[in-house]
């Protein structure tokens, strides 16, 4: 015996298909937005070999971090911090990437999309379970 249909209700398979498509679209949109925020702007300035001068108002980024061997139990206890003119700056994002032979990199990126003007000091701190190493660089941003 066939059950009487209720007007306005869709079969279960149709509702499941619509739900699956909706979830796929939402995940694609969220994934695309998350990926778009992990973009490094301009050229890289390294604190290990910084330029003495850099064009004012020109986008740049600073990224630093660590390289590990797969299985390092302290991976989550390492971090990199950046101060600009004595003020701590939050990272725009960080990446964890696995390479061949079990090598893992963990990198923090700090974007400066509008660049800077004048003279600025950048202090980088590589923080590990064994202590902190730091490096300072002063750069003149010239017109």
Brief summary of the model shown:
By secondary structure, the chain is α+β, with helices and mostly antiparallel strands. The protein contains one helix and nine strands. The chain folds into two domains: 10-39; 43-142, Immunoglobulins (Immunoglobulin-like).
Which helices and strands, and how do they pair?
Elements: H1 12-37, E1 43-44, E2 53-55, E3 60-69, E4 79-84, E5 87-89, E6 93-98, E7 103-112, E8 118-128, E9 131-142
Note down, in words, how this protein is organized.
- By secondary structure, the chain is α+β, with helices and mostly antiparallel strands.
- It has two domains: 30 residues; 100 residues, Sandwich (Immunoglobulin-like), CATH 2.60.40.10.
- The chain is 18% helix and 44% strand.
- It is built from one helix and nine strands, in the order αβββββββββ.
- Strands 2-9-8-4-5 form a five-stranded mixed beta sheet, with no helix packed on it.
- A hairpin with a 2-residue loop joins strand 4 and strand 5.
- The protein is globular and about 45 Å long.
- About 17% of the residues have low confidence.
């Amino acid at each position: 015996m066939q059950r009487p249909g209720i007007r306005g209700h869709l079969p279960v398979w149709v509702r499941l298909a619509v739900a699956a498509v909706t979830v796929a679209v939402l995940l694609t949109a969220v994934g695309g937005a998350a990926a778009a925020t992990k973009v490094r702007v301009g050229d890289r300035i390294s604190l290990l070999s910084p330029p003495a001068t850099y064009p004012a108002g020109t986008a740049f980024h600073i990224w630093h971090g660590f390289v590990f061997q797969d299985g390092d139990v302290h991976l989550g206890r390492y971090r990199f911090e950046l101060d600009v003119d004595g003020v701590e700056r939050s990272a725009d994002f960080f990446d964890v990437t696995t390479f061949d032979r079990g090598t893992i990199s963990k990198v923090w990126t700090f974007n400066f999309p509008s660049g800077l003007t004048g003279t600025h000091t950048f202090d980088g701190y590589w923080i590990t379970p064994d202590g902190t190493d730091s490096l300072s660089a002063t750069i003149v941003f010239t017109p």
